[in-house]
Amino acid sequence: xxxxxxxxxxxxxxxxxxxxxxxxxxxxxxxxxxxxxxxxxxxxxxxxxxxxxxxxxxxxxxxxxxxxxxxxxxxxxxxxxxxxxxxxxxxxxxxxxxxxxxxxxxxxxxxxxxxxxxxxxxxxxxxxxxxxxxxxxxx
Length: 139
Fold this sequence. Notes:
By secondary structure, the protein is of the alpha+beta class. The chain has a single domain (about 10-139), classed as Thiol Ester Dehydrase, Chain A (Roll). The chain is built from 2 helices and 6 strands, in the order βαβββββα.
C-alpha cells in the first residue's frame, strides 16, 4: 500500500527521538513495534502540550486505528525526527499522519504512519463532539 499525506493537512508538531540499543531486535534493526512507539511519542507530546486528554475524568482523544508503513530498517545509533500532521477533522474524529526520518539523513523517509483519533467522553466511553478550542487547532 502506498502512503500519501492528504492534500489538506496541517503540520502541528516535530520531535527528535533517540534510537536506543535496546530498541533493536535479534535481527540487528529496530523492532517494528518501536516505530509505533515513536509515532505515539510525537502524538502524545503534541496532545499534552495543547492540553488535550490530561483530565482522565472528563473528555479527550482515544486512538481507534493505527498503521505504519516501513520503508527502511532503522538501527542504533542515531536519532529520528518524527513530524506530525493532522487532517480530516469531523464532528468527533480526526486523523494524524507522521513521517520518520533519521536526523543525519534529512529528507529520507524511513517510515510513515498515522492514527484515527476519536474525541471520547471517558466516563461513558462513547464518542463526543470535539470542543471548539481543540477543533481550532486542527484547522
